């Protein structure tokens, strides 16, 4: 019997040794049972509410299960797989369906034991309730600390958190060095400077951003409706808001996102001692926002290769800087102090070069052979199904003809009642429907040739075919699988689109303005 181990821990109260302890217990059980240890996987500091398929170790475990590389899964308990009932049931059923035995070293679960379903559901419910209880207790504790006047939550730019003497809590205090930067930003914005120009100056001066990196426009403007962004943070005006939003996890993607709480749940406190921006300056910034509008969420990616193009200097994204050109987003957003690449590439040249590469791969002989094989297999399956349906139809017709004959005899003997009339009409209608001419026999080879011809015609105008697709995100995923990340590079020989896997580069037609990373390469 081939056995594998899986371990996981999630909180900062546990350490890497927790993984080692779980694996050690599993190895002991495997040795005692005389099984062969075929593999070990672990996930550190990953919540039990994160889907198994989105964890590095969990993904490897599922891949090995699909490949039938082991017979027994040993873990500390089912909560190591998931703390959510739905996710746990899905994973366990998939594994057990493939004949994989699941054994818990601590919770006593064994998929070969009687009553395992009841035990699994009971433990899954307990695990999920544990998560809910932990979440509620954590929030209740934070609310109590806020009511007692302590600081809870993160620390934003311009402040630092300090422990309160003689109390179990922390407080915010103004960081004068960062506060000076905040006031400079507000003054420049109120004077009419753009957020982009302000970011360029901050990066040129070497002033670190709130996260320690470089400044971006989104860090300043954010989203006014959500109070996100430095220019919208009411704490700078001496107004502290807590419990405004909460984290919720998408059950499909496993990603967390902010969700606004109802306004009546917000807790607001005036904190004049934490004011950094004077009232008149705060009002000037708000007046400018009302006068010119506030930048909302970023525009959706509209170009086919959005998210795939990278700058050859800084590795940042190359985006559509206008209707005709691609340029480095880092250079545009953060300034030449962060990336000096001023090169711009014609969108038409880049798109046509990459579409040509995609078309070439889609027309490769092995791809065409695979397409025809898929069409043939599908048509043969449809033909076989139609044949089975035809035989069933013939058998049913014989049954109906016999039934109609019996009904006619009954009418001759006892007369036409309403029940006999209705049944006779229904049988005759069903027989007439089954006696319709059968569909023409499919010529599999001819249909495969026609499908290949249609495929070639569509590839002639690949860009139009891709842009007609309603699911643009899925289209980008497919393009990413073919071309992967693409560096746009300029050197003395011309402009190039360079791919890493497979390593190759494609020349771009024409030329563009710019001098590459501050000079010719």
TrEMBL record:
Residues 417-472 form a coiled coil. Gene3D superfamilies: Putative Large Serine Recombinase, Chain B, Domain 2, Resolvase, N-terminal catalytic domain. It comes from the Bacteria. Residues 156-295 form the Recombinase domain. PROSITE patterns: RECOMBINASE_DNA_BIND, RECOMBINASES_3. The keyword Coiled coil applies. PANTHER family: DNA RECOMBINASE-RELATED, DNA-INVERTASE FROM LAMBDOID PROPHAGE. This is DNA invertase Pin-like site-specific DNA recombinase. It comes from Rubrivivax gelatinosus.
